[in-house]
Amino acid sequence: MNVMNRSSALHVESTPGVRGAPPSTHVADRGRIKVLHSVGHLLRGGIETWLYQMVTRLDPAQFEHHVLVWTDEEQAFTADFRAAGVRVLPCLGHTNPLRFAANFRRLVAENGPYDILHTHGTHYHGFVMMLAARAGIPARIAHSHTDIKPVLAEASLPYKLYAGLGHAAIRHWATVGRGVSDLAAASMFNADWRDDARFGVLYCGVDLEPFAAAPDPLLRARLGIPEKSMVIGHVGRFEKQKNHSFLLETAAAVRRRDPAAHFLLIGDGSQRAEHVARAEALGLSPHITFIPDCRTIPAHMIGAMDRFLFPSLYEGLPLVTVEAQAAGLPCLISDSLTREILVEGTSSRMLPLAAGVDAWAEALLALPARTEASKAAMQATLRRGPFNIVSAAASLASLYEQSLERSSR
């Protein structure tokens, strides 16, 4: 189902809770809504980027945000959250349930009381939900950001049991549940999630303004990319989920057909060194530019890429593909992901991984060239729909209000 037809954009002017909007009567009566987010870590990933954009867009006069992490390390996003006025709370011991529970109770007692727990993760958050309920947090929102069914299909029996118990606990203790897509909702809340009034879909949004900027004509030169190359880009952490092995084999197949093709891969991760070595073994090193995760992804998409390649094994709703379409990039995306990411009118397409790297190479080269007109059309469509960050922030503010009202019944 096309997302643009199923969820109309909300207007900031009519939705309290977003910066610049009129205050909610409910919030004015009761004071700020205090939200505790549980994310595990603050690496610069998709969930953390979205959450940062949300907490900096929601009105601080109406919402106070704290973030629970399971490490005391200063990570890529830690300083950004603190600078935005968000309290970052390390809750250590997640591998030791008794220690974690004691630390959770202490942090809630010292920093609460909280109105809402908003979890951003999978099965372990069933335990967090239970602790929050026992600590008296009235509204508990479970947010499913990924479809882990492909992972569970290959997992061991003990892990499947652990995940099943975790998700059962989430469904029991959550007062509200949201998936970032239909697939993500079904992954956490079961296939019949639509039959439970607590559960639904909340699309994450992207900030469209950086993608409307003019391209930097000197960016390719600074990156060492030949000016006349056809550049295929990818953004994602170097982990198994992102399927970089398939990506590199596809790159080799593309190069056999178009010797002018160049690849730009942005991201960090535990498998980065392994894939850099694999690129060298395939003879691709002169034709691939690896850069670490950065704050200037929109500029790289606009100024350095011609197409976008995304062969992930599984995702919830990969916002980076929406960002690529906002930049006007034709995308080739694995069809194991939700079709909700295809923006209406896009020239992007989906292809089965089983089709093989040669078919992927042919499909990449067959994508139409990006034009300023196609970029403008994508921007206009996205501004009207739920992937616009303004609409997403308004939807989240409304969800917090509704969650509190539901928990008080």
Taking the alpha carbons of the first and last residues, their distance comes to: 34 Å
CATH class of the largest domain: Alpha Beta
Helix/strand structural class: alpha/beta
**CATH architecture tag of the largest domain:** 3-Layer(aba) Sandwich
Which descriptor suits the 3D outline? globular
Average pLDDT, rounded to a whole number, is: 90
What's the number of extended β-strand segments? 13
Biggest sheet record: 7 strands, parallel
Radius of gyration: 22 Å
What is the CATH topology classification name of the largest domain?
Rossmann fold
Taken in chain order, the helices and strands follow as HHEHEHEHEHEHHEHEHEHEHEHEHEEHHH
- SS strand fraction: 15-25%
Give the count of helical stretches.
17
The CATH homologous superfamily of the largest domain corresponds to Glycogen Phosphorylase B
| Spatial strand sequence of the major β-sheet | 3-2-1-4-5-6-7
Number of domains: 2
Helix coverage percent: 40-55%
Unreliable stretches (pLDDT < 50, length at least 5) are 5-14
Pfam family, one: Glyco_trans_4_4
Protein name: Glycosyltransferase involved in cell wall bisynthesis
GO molecular function: hexosyltransferase activity
Keywords: Transferase
Structural topology:
Layout: H1 3-6, H2 25-30, E1 33-40, H3 46-57, E2 63-69, H4 78-83, E3 87-90, H5 97-111, E4 116-120, H6 125-134, E5 139-144, H7 149-154, H8 157-173, E6 176-179, H9 182-189, E7 199-201, H10 219-223, E8 230-235, H11 244-257, E9 261-266, H12 272-281, E10 288-291, H13 297-304, E11 307-310, H14 319-326, E12 331-334, E13 349-351, H15 357-366, H16 372-383, H17 389-407
Parallel strand pairs: 1-2, 1-4, 2-3, 4-5, 5-6, 6-7, 8-9, 8-11, 9-10, 11-12, 12-13
